[in-house]
Specification:
283 residues, mainly alpha, two-stranded antiparallel ribbon, 10 helices
């Protein structure tokens, strides 16, 4: 037998039994594991190919290398925001995947321990993703060339679109639990209605990939029996905080977009009008 298996009398340097405390549980509660082995992440070669395909599509649409750089960098920073939140809340180590022609995806190794943590992870992407606009706005201030403001606007746009409460975008994961706290049917009706409008918007503007992706996701949600994952539900206090954080994140995205539009305009109202045109049907 080894030394640790042999019973012995406690020595003078051993702690007294009354001084020994049980370890405190983690502050965020136990994260729920995902079935199967830990995810090793995307193969570097496939990540490179996916990035080139996505960049090529963006260049085909925009014809601007600045927009390509802004969108790719913005997506990376956005997904890294999710990764930081997942790792902080016990869901890591999280990985980033580049999806050809569509964008990015952050994937944790464990499910969130509560809906509140799910809300924080969902909002971390758009909130952190706005930081990607800093170098492009700095380039505009340095050179005075408005082409860099196009990159700022693109970053604000992709983060604001992600906040739309339509499955599987971040907005549905941030606002869905709040609506479900009122009643599960409120969540289903609201998210499906917004999702249907988003699909119609994509079709009317020729964004077939975006519309098809959302339509496929909506169909998958309709087939699911239970929309809310397992885990502790939001309290009313957490629902209120989730709503405030959601509104603040939307306001931050709008503010960054206005910062990109205002140098060429006279008033804030003109900036809001120009920004709203980005979301028009059939533009």
């Amino acid at each position: 037998m080894s030394d640790i298996d042999t019973p012995r009398r406690p020595g003078p340097w051993d702690p007294r039994p009354e001084d020994v405390r049980a370890p405190a549980p983690p502050a965020h509660g136990p994260a729920r594991p995902v079935d199967g082995a830990l995810d090793k992440g995307q193969h570097p070669l496939w990540a490179l190919v996916s990035t080139l395909l996505l960049g090529g599509l963006i260049y085909y649409w925009s014809g601007s290398l600045v927009i390509v750089a802004a969108v790719l960098f913005g997506l990376l920073v956005h997904e890294y925001g999710h990764v930081l939140a997942m790792n902080r809340l016990g869901m890591g180590p999280a990985r980033i995947y580049i999806v050809p022609f569509l964008g990015g995806l952050a994937k944790g190794q464990r499910m969130p321990a509560s809906e509140w943590y799910g809300v924080l992870v969902a909002l971390a992407g758009p909130a952190f993703g706005l930081l990607a606009a800093i170098p492009f706005f700095g380039a505009y201030l340095w050179t005075g060339q408005t082409i860099w403001l196009g990159g700022v606007l693109a970053i604000a746009f992709i983060n604001l679109i992600n906040l739309a409460p339509a499955p599987p975008l971040d907005g549905s994961k941030a606002l869905g639990p709040v609506l479900a706290r009122i009643h599960p049917m409120v969540e289903k009706v609201a998210l499906l209605a917004v999702g249907g409008l988003a699909v119609a918007w994509g079709v009317s503007n020729g964004s077939w990939l975006f519309a098809g992706f959302l339509a496929f996701a909506l169909f998958g949600h309709l087939r699911r029996g239970a929309w809310r994952p397992e885990g502790r539900r939001l309290t009313w206090g957490e629902a209120a905080k989730s709503t405030v954080l959601f509104v603040l994140t939307v306001a931050a995205c709008v503010g960054v977009g206005l910062a990109a539009l205002l140098p060429g305009l006279d008033t804030v109202s003109e900036g809001l009008t120009h920004g709203a045109r980005l979301f028009e049907f059939g533009r």
